[in-house]
Amino acid sequence: MIAVLEDDERRTVAMREELAQLFPEVESVFFDNAPDMVAWLRDNLRAVCLLCLDHDLGPVRERDGRTFDPGIGRDVVDFLVTQEPRCPVLIHSSNTESAYGMRFALDDAGWLAERMAPFDDLAWIKAEWSGRVAALWACGTA
Questions:
Q1: Based on the structure, what is the number of domains in the chain?
Q2: b vs e for 112-124, b when ≥16 Cβ sit within 10 Å of the residue's Cβ?
Q3: CATH code: domain of residue 90
Protein backbone atom coordinates (compact mmCIF):
# COMPACT_ATOMS: atom_id res chain seq x y z
CA MET A 1 0.00 0.00 0.00
CA ILE A 2 1.15 3.55 -0.75
CA ALA A 3 -0.07 6.46 1.39
CA VAL A 4 0.15 10.04 0.10
CA LEU A 5 -0.33 13.37 1.85
CA GLU A 6 -1.20 16.02 -0.75
CA ASP A 7 -3.77 18.81 -0.53
CA ASP A 8 -3.68 20.04 -4.14
CA GLU A 9 -6.42 18.27 -6.13
CA ARG A 10 -4.56 18.64 -9.44
CA ARG A 11 -1.45 17.03 -7.98
CA THR A 12 -3.55 14.29 -6.42
CA VAL A 13 -5.12 13.44 -9.78
CA ALA A 14 -1.71 13.36 -11.51
CA MET A 15 -0.18 11.23 -8.73
CA ARG A 16 -3.08 8.77 -8.80
CA GLU A 17 -2.60 8.37 -12.57
CA GLU A 18 1.14 7.74 -12.19
CA LEU A 19 0.64 5.24 -9.37
CA ALA A 20 -2.03 3.39 -11.36
CA GLN A 21 0.41 3.03 -14.26
CA LEU A 22 3.39 2.09 -12.09
CA PHE A 23 1.59 -0.26 -9.70
CA PRO A 24 -1.87 -1.21 -11.00
CA GLU A 25 -2.18 -3.92 -8.34
CA VAL A 26 -1.20 -1.70 -5.39
CA GLU A 27 -3.71 0.24 -3.33
CA SER A 28 -2.95 3.92 -2.87
CA VAL A 29 -4.56 6.03 -0.16
CA PHE A 30 -4.59 9.83 -0.31
CA PHE A 31 -5.07 12.39 2.46
CA ASP A 32 -5.38 16.16 2.20
CA ASN A 33 -4.66 16.78 5.88
CA ALA A 34 -2.30 15.55 8.56
CA PRO A 35 -4.76 14.65 11.36
CA ASP A 36 -6.66 12.18 9.17
CA MET A 37 -3.45 10.64 7.86
CA VAL A 38 -2.00 10.19 11.36
CA ALA A 39 -5.24 8.62 12.59
CA TRP A 40 -5.22 6.23 9.62
CA LEU A 41 -1.52 5.40 10.08
CA ARG A 42 -2.12 4.38 13.69
CA ASP A 43 -4.09 1.40 12.37
CA ASN A 44 -2.48 0.83 8.97
CA LEU A 45 1.24 1.69 9.09
CA ARG A 46 2.23 -1.98 9.01
CA ALA A 47 0.59 -2.37 5.57
CA VAL A 48 2.31 0.66 4.03
CA CYS A 49 5.34 0.10 1.78
CA LEU A 50 5.84 3.76 0.80
CA LEU A 51 4.81 7.16 2.16
CA CYS A 52 4.78 10.38 0.11
CA LEU A 53 4.42 13.58 2.12
CA ASP A 54 3.84 17.23 1.29
CA HIS A 55 4.53 19.87 3.94
CA ASP A 56 2.21 22.83 3.37
CA LEU A 57 -1.44 21.75 3.43
CA GLY A 58 -3.29 24.97 2.90
CA PRO A 59 -5.23 27.23 5.24
CA VAL A 60 -7.61 26.43 8.03
CA ARG A 61 -10.92 25.43 6.47
CA GLU A 62 -14.44 24.46 7.38
CA ARG A 63 -15.32 20.79 7.89
CA ASP A 64 -18.59 19.45 9.26
CA GLY A 65 -19.61 22.99 10.18
CA ARG A 66 -16.50 23.60 12.28
CA THR A 67 -13.12 25.21 11.80
CA PHE A 68 -10.59 22.57 10.81
CA ASP A 69 -6.80 22.93 10.77
CA PRO A 70 -5.29 20.57 8.16
CA GLY A 71 -1.93 20.66 9.91
CA ILE A 72 1.35 20.22 8.05
CA GLY A 73 3.44 17.33 6.82
CA ARG A 74 5.71 17.71 9.84
CA ASP A 75 2.77 16.57 12.01
CA VAL A 76 2.87 13.22 10.20
CA VAL A 77 6.64 13.06 10.60
CA ASP A 78 6.31 13.78 14.33
CA PHE A 79 4.09 10.71 14.55
CA LEU A 80 6.36 8.56 12.36
CA VAL A 81 9.47 9.22 14.44
CA THR A 82 7.70 7.62 17.42
CA GLN A 83 7.24 4.42 15.39
CA GLU A 84 9.64 1.73 14.27
CA PRO A 85 10.85 2.57 10.73
CA ARG A 86 8.79 0.51 8.31
CA CYS A 87 9.03 1.96 4.82
CA PRO A 88 10.70 4.67 2.73
CA VAL A 89 9.33 8.22 2.76
CA LEU A 90 9.45 10.63 -0.18
CA ILE A 91 8.94 14.27 0.81
CA HIS A 92 7.69 16.47 -2.02
CA SER A 93 7.46 20.11 -1.05
CA SER A 94 8.52 23.47 -2.39
CA ASN A 95 8.98 24.63 1.20
CA THR A 96 12.70 23.83 1.22
CA GLU A 97 13.51 24.56 4.85
CA SER A 98 10.54 22.64 6.25
CA ALA A 99 11.02 19.71 3.85
CA TYR A 100 14.63 19.31 4.92
CA GLY A 101 13.53 19.51 8.56
CA MET A 102 11.11 16.65 7.90
CA ARG A 103 13.84 14.63 6.23
CA PHE A 104 16.39 15.20 8.97
CA ALA A 105 13.88 14.17 11.67
CA LEU A 106 13.11 10.96 9.77
CA ASP A 107 16.81 10.27 9.15
CA ASP A 108 17.56 10.73 12.85
CA ALA A 109 14.83 8.22 13.72
CA GLY A 110 16.21 5.62 11.30
CA TRP A 111 13.69 6.03 8.47
CA LEU A 112 14.83 5.98 4.84
CA ALA A 113 13.77 9.41 3.56
CA GLU A 114 14.33 11.45 0.43
CA ARG A 115 13.30 14.96 -0.47
CA MET A 116 12.43 16.43 -3.86
CA ALA A 117 11.20 19.83 -4.94
CA PRO A 118 8.22 20.20 -7.27
CA PHE A 119 8.85 22.16 -10.48
CA ASP A 120 7.11 23.23 -13.68
CA ASP A 121 3.51 23.04 -12.44
CA LEU A 122 2.64 19.30 -12.64
CA ALA A 123 5.46 18.20 -14.97
CA TRP A 124 7.63 17.08 -12.04
CA ILE A 125 5.20 14.30 -11.15
CA LYS A 126 5.78 12.40 -14.38
CA ALA A 127 9.34 13.63 -14.96
CA GLU A 128 10.83 12.91 -11.54
CA TRP A 129 8.37 11.93 -8.82
CA SER A 130 7.21 8.71 -10.49
CA GLY A 131 10.78 7.46 -10.97
CA ARG A 132 11.69 8.17 -7.37
CA VAL A 133 8.49 6.50 -6.20
CA ALA A 134 9.38 3.39 -8.21
CA ALA A 135 12.92 3.30 -6.81
CA LEU A 136 11.76 3.78 -3.23
CA TRP A 137 8.99 1.22 -3.69
CA ALA A 138 11.68 -1.31 -4.57
CA CYS A 139 13.50 -0.44 -1.33
CA GLY A 140 10.31 -0.71 0.70
CA THR A 141 9.31 -4.09 -0.67
CA ALA A 142 12.77 -5.67 -0.73
A1: 1
A2: ebbbeebeeebeb
A3: 3.40.50.360
